[in-house]
Specification:
3 strands, ARM-type_fold
Length: 1115
């Protein structure tokens, strides 16, 4: 470090002889002076490091002359011409004064006054001198010693007072600094005896600027015994600051303060201090009503309004419950609401995030439930046409105390049942005020309010950060469910929800919101954690229990019991289910009860999942009874069959489907519902029945996943044409809109209308528009109007039909994506099952068709999902079928089919998936043993054909990486294919493919597994063959300087280097002389440069024959 260097230099000055001593001092001074250079650098990190190093240096080398020089340089630097340098020198001076407390502050203050005297300094340096004085006082203040020397405090205040007249340069910095100094003075006697007389003028002019008012407020806070009412009356003319006479002055100061922080987006400290003083003086109402509402809010929307909003947020922790209710139902809130609505337009300033922070901080720090409730109700009541301006998902609710949360939820329920718009803080924009519609507007406001309340209640349950009791969760769920599907006939204490009467009946839109919110709540409760904190003794990484209450019962079961209660009270509640639907419900509850009994006897795989599925389908029976009634019956019989099958292996009747096949059909039928909850439960259920899935059940899933491929195979061309036609039609529609192109039928109809009224001009009769009388013209107009109206209806009908088709298509695709969930679960849970092999071809078909079509985003998502399942979860799975012994022929046929298809493809990206599938099939055939059930000769032949095709064709979908993966994963096949590859080193169809052959052979010969398989004579024989092929290949090189040839030579030389080095190391009996001769002649064929990849590889090879580069031999 620099300090260590300087310490070493000091040591040198003591021990070194005369001449060297002088050099040591110079070096030491250079290091010392560098600190001051660094203080002036624009980089803040460099300045801070320089301060640290300077202090450390001075503490280590306490020399009077260096310390004196330090003070001189630092005082000079306070008025540095570079603005970024001044804070660095000021900070350094403050830190030096803090470190060396024996240096009197008065002496430093005197130096500052002398050096930066505004009366003697040159005019062009006057501004720098002003900042020199200011930063000098700041340095003394930062030393933390100023309160110990009263005369220095006085001197600093007087110096700052002399600077206040230079506002054009220093603005309000001198007054702010005085306020900071005043905050540090501890003793009231010092203020009274030393400072009061000096500050008298500043305190008396407190209403001139925000800074001077802040000075007075700080003095009042710090020294209340000195600034008593009598003293204030002498200074200000009144014994209090906030009174009716001073309100206009204070308002002006507040406006100035608002303008001063226009860009900073903060609340000036003077405003909050003024509010605190109003609470202390018991004049808050006067201050709020007159200075804020009748003062600041009378200004145009802008800084004055924003200051008022920020003051409202900052005041929340300071006010009583009554004051909170008053403020939150006043004009400031109304103006804030208008700001929220108007700021939703783009490029408008938004204060909402700031207010959210104010409210969140208040609720987090407040333990008073009444105050919390007052704030939540106040903000929730601020509404525009019935809709509150705070979002329904407002996250500040997570800081509420349990008691406040309970009361807030009750308030929300009451607002839903009996919307009292007169109790809301309602406001309207200018446009809304002009468009009043009376009764209709009121009904619309009630609808908007109720929709918000339902969303607000749901979001409280959704937010896992909210601390809520189980009774509250259940109460909200019961409330939403009851009003979504039931209505009360008569109030009863046994059903709490019947007690609340609706002052206005629910409309269909609100009912729809309730229904959707209820099923959203079900999903949230399904994921609801049991405890907020892990219990003692439970591992932190242990899986948390979700979706159950403290007694272990599922939330949805509690709701089913509540539903059962409602259905059993027809005298109290209107019944939404028909007798047939009610019978299905009762049957479902019996099945759940039966499953629960069996679960008590012992845990059964899938028992909980079946219960969840039953209950969920039962709940959805209220939403879509026609669709789910048959599904419920099938589910009932299917589960009965499944349980009976597990209990005793019964023989099924001829032609009767397995229970698991029926269950799969049911699950797929349920997946057609637009419910995330159903989708998740279906995955859970399918996961539990995976071990029982049969080939027929899996085929049913695959048929759905690949439907559109198989079903539309005969119409592929037609579909493509239709897609193109659709695109063309869209373009034509646009053109029709722009160019008014009409079809032939419309043209004929138009001709008929005109002929009927004799409105067509012909050359023979020379008729003219003027020949038609008024009646004829009227008839013509009516005919034309009717014709164009009919044409418009036809056009709209076509567009509607097209939109409907697109919607249906999107639903089908969405359904297929959901069914892929089942495929994914099966691959994950049953990767070792032979049935997994049935997935290979269907998944490849989906990928192939998807990549070869111009599909939309949804289709791309489906394709991406299928590709991920195939590549990452099937082919790369560490678990795979190991019982392929009885289906060797079938798998070999599949491999042959896949590789044949691979070579016919045109797209390498699709080819990659087919090749991966082929490797997966080989892996399955190999199993656990060396090559297991692999017919090595047959498989080698299949891959040899592919390799030969790859090495012969100019454009091939196969890639180098595919064969590299094959060789690395299956060395036995690599050995079998080596002869083909080696042959292509010299006999490849093209130069590029000869180079690829060298790459393949090099990778193979470097493999330890290949070396072990060919150990002994076969390995030596391979080396001989490769040597001969390399010599032949290099002999073919001509004098052309093409890049392809050079690349081939580079790859050939890389193989040569490995071969020659290996032969020499292993001392193999391989004749390398022919290869050596060809290498020697290569320099005459190719023009070598001084350096390059080709040249480096060449010299690396011939080095093994004792040849050195020309340059080295010359030396």
């Amino acid at each position: 470090t620099v300090s260590e260097m300087s310490t070493e230099m000091v040591a040198l000055t003591v021990t070194a002889p005369g001449p060297v001593k002088q050099a040591g001092i110079l070096q030491q001074n250079r290091v010392f002076l560098d600190f001051f250079w660094d203080l002036a650098k624009p980089d803040q990190e460099a300045r801070l490091k320089a301060v640290e190093n300077l202090i450390q240096y001075l503490k280590t080398n306490t020399k009077a002359d260096e310390l004196e020089y330090t003070f001189k340089r630092l005082v000079d630097g306070l008025a540095h011409t570079r603005e970024t340098a001044r804070p660095g020198f000021s900070l350094a001076l403050g830190q030096v004064l803090c470190a060396f407390e024996d240096i009197p502050l008065q002496s430093v203050l005197d130096k500052i006054k002398v050096k930066h005297n505004l009366l003697t300094v040159k005019k062009k340096l006057l501004r720098n001198a002003m900042f020199g004085n200011l930063f000098g006082v700041l340095a003394i203040h930062q030393s933390s010693r100023i309160s110990k020397e009263p005369q220095v405090v006085l001197g600093c205040v007087q110096l700052l007072q002399s600077l206040t007249q230079h506002r054009q340069h220093l603005k309000d910095l001198p007054t702010k600094t005085m306020t900071d100094i005043l905050s540090e003075v501890i003793q009231e006697e010092v203020f009274e005896e030393v400072l009061l007389s000096a500050l008298k003028t500043d305190l008396a002019s407190a209403f001139s600027t925000p800074e001077q008012l802040q000075l007075l407020l700080v003095a009042l806070q710090r020294f209340p015994q000195t600034l008593k009412p009598k003293k204030l009356k002498k200074l200000l003319g009144s014994s209090t600051i906030i009174n009716a006479d001073n309100i206009p002055k204070l308002t002006e100061v507040l406006k100035m303060a608002a303008g001063s922080v226009k860009k900073e987006c903060v609340l000036p400290a003077v405003v909050l201090d003024l509010l605190k003083l109003s609470l202390k003086e018991d004049s808050f109402q006067l201050f709020w009503n007159n200075a804020i509402i009748n003062g600041m809010l009378k200004e145009q929307p802008g800084p004055a309004h924003y200051l008022s909003f920020r003051l409202l947020g900052s005041a929340l922790p300071l006010l009583s419950t009554a004051q909170l209710k008053d403020v939150l139902s006043g004009e400031v809130m109304i103006q804030y609401g208008e700001h929220v609505v108007s700021s939703q337009k783009p490029d408008r300033f938004k204060l909402v995030p700031e207010m959210d922070t104010y409210v969140s901080d208040f609720l987090q720090g407040c333990q008073d439930a009444d105050k919390q409730l007052a704030v939540m109700v106040g903000f929730s009541s601020l509404s525009n046409q019935g809709y509150p301006v705070v979002p329904s998902v407002w996250r500040v609710v997570q800081h509420l105390q349990p008691a406040a949360l309970q009361q807030y939820v009750e308030w929300l329920k009451d607002m839903f049942l009996q919307p009292q718009l007169d109790k809301l803080l309602e406001f309207s924009t200018r446009k809304q005020k002009d468009n009043k519609e009376g009764k209709e507007q009121k009904e619309n406001s009630i609808i908007r309010l109720r929709r918000w309340v339902v969303s607000r209640l749901s979001s409280i349950i959704d937010n896992h950060q909210v601390k809520k009791e189980e009774d509250l969760i259940m109460g909200v769920a019961r409330f939403v469910f009851f009003h979504a599907f039931f209505s009360a006939k008569k109030a009863s204490s046994s059903i709490q929800e019947t007690k609340g009467t609706l002052s206005v009946p629910l409309d269909d839109k609100t009912k729809g919101v309730l229904v959707n919110s209820f099923f959203g709540l079900l999903l949230s409760m399904h994921h609801l954690p049991l405890d907020d904190d892990p219990a003692e003794g439970v591992a932190v990484n242990q899986k948390r229990t979700l979706g159950v209450t403290a007694d272990g019962t599922m939330w949805i079961y509690h709701l089913a019991q509540y539903t059962q209660l409602l259905l059993s009270q027809p005298k109290l509640v209107n019944q939404p289910l028909s007798p047939e639907q009610r019978k299905a419900w009762d049957s479902m509850m019996e099945s759940v009860a039966s499953l629960k009994k069996k679960a008590k006897k012992g845990p059964t795989a899938g028992n909980g999942a079946f219960q969840q599925l039953f209950l969920l389908v039962g709940m959805h029976l209220f939403k879509a009874p026609e669709e789910l009634l048959d599904i419920m019956r099938d589910l009932q019989s299917c589960v009965d069959m499944a349980l009976a099958k597990k209990a005793k292996k019964k023989k099924k009747k001829q032609g009767e489907p397995e229970w698991v096949e029926v269950m799969v059909e049911i699950l797929m039928a349920l997946l057609s519902q637009s419910s995330r909850h159903i989708r998740q439960v279906c995955k859970t259920v399918f996961s539990s029945i995976c071990p029982h899935v049969t080939a027929e059940a899996l085929t049913a899933i695959l048929d759905v996943s690949s439907s559109g491929e198989s079903d539309d195979s005969d119409e592929d061309d037609g579909d493509d044409a239709m897609e193109e036609d659709d695109d063309d039609e869209e373009e034509e529609d646009d053109e029709e809109g722009e160019l008014a192109v009409v079809d032939q039928s419309f043209r004929l109809e138009l001709m008929k209308v005109l002929q009927q009224q004799n409105a067509l001009a012909t050359e023979e009769d020379g008729s003219d528009d003027d020949d038609l009388d008024d009646d004829a013209m009227m008839k013509l107009d009516k005919g034309l109007a009717a014709l164009f109206s009919e044409q418009k209806k036809k056009s709209q009908a076509k567009k509607d039909e097209k939109t409907e088709l697109q919607k249906e298509k999107a639903l089908v695709r969405d359904f297929k994506i959901k069914v892929l969930d089942l495929v994914e679960v099966f691959v994950a849970r049953q990767a070792g099952s032979p049935l997994v092999l049935r997935l290979v071809e269907p998944l490849l078909t989906i990928i192939d068709r998807g990549m070869n079509s111009n599909s939309d985003q949804q289709e791309q998502d489906f394709l991406r999902r299928a590709a991920d399942i195939f590549r990452n979860q099937l082919c790369r799975s560490k678990v795979y079928c190991r019982t392929a012994g009885d289906r060797q022929g079938e798998l070999h046929d599949l491999l042959e089919k896949l590789m044949a298809k691979t070579q016919k493809l045109s797209d390498s990206s699709v080819c990659l998936y087919y090749f991966s599938a082929s490797l997966y099939v080989v892996k399955v055939l190999r199993g656990l043993s060396f090559m297991g059930n692999v017919d090595v000769d047959r498989v080698s032949g299949i891959f040899r054909d592919a390799l030969s095709s790859f090495m012969a064709r100019r454009k091939s979908p196969l890639t180098t990486q595919m064969f590299t993966d094959l060789f690395s994963r299956f060395p036995v096949l690599c050995v079998k294919l080596l002869d083909t590859i080696v042959h292509h080193i010299a006999s490849g169809a093209r130069v590029h493919q000869q180079g690829l052959a060298c790459v393949f052979v090099l990778r193979a010969m470097q493999s330890r597994e290949v070396q072990q398989l060919l150990s002994g004579a076969p390995w030596t024989e391979l080396c001989v063959t490769v040597s001969g092929q390399l010599a032949s290949s290099l002999e073919q090189v001509d004098q052309t300087e093409t890049k392809v040839v050079k690349d081939k030579v580079v790859k050939t030389l890389e193989l040569c280097q490995f071969l020659v080095k290996h032969v020499h190391q292993q001392k193999l009996s391989v004749d390398l002389e022919p290869l050596q001769k060809v290498l020697q002649s290569l320099t005459s064929t190719i023009a070598f440069k001084k350096t390059g990849k080709l040249e480096d590889n060449y010299w690396a090879v011939v080095k093994h024959f004792g040849v050195v580069p020309f340059e080295k031999s010359a030396h």
